[in-house]
Description:
mainly alpha; 72% helix; 7 helices; two-stranded antiparallel ribbon; elongated
Amino acid sequence: MGKKSSLPLIYLIGVLLVAIGFCCPMIKGLFGSSANGFDFIRNAKEGGFVAIGSILIIAGAILGIIACFVPQLKGLKLIFALVILAGAVILVIGFTTNGRIYKAVGKHLLKNALFGFYMVVAGIVLSIVGAVQK
């Protein structure tokens, strides 16, 4: 008998890391405070790239978790992983092009990154690897 693949589990761990990392502090603020993904949505004026990217990240993660348990959605795992990746790219673009505060944080993004940021990045990589491999 063949050995069962653990790649669906890798995908689930990846999207769970994205969802948990989104809720954890992701970026150290300018005045010592920290912000999670929901703060990005709440503080973005008139939508903007930061809010759109944040919404795509959390929506892709939630739908990816649901896809692990609903058999009819299993074929959409790669799409949900790519939605998370697109949200992350849009969020970074928003940090580098939007208002002054976002630009100040965006210039030193890796210096100001906290553990939630790294959890999201690791989750994106794991979810894409788990979705691509069959």
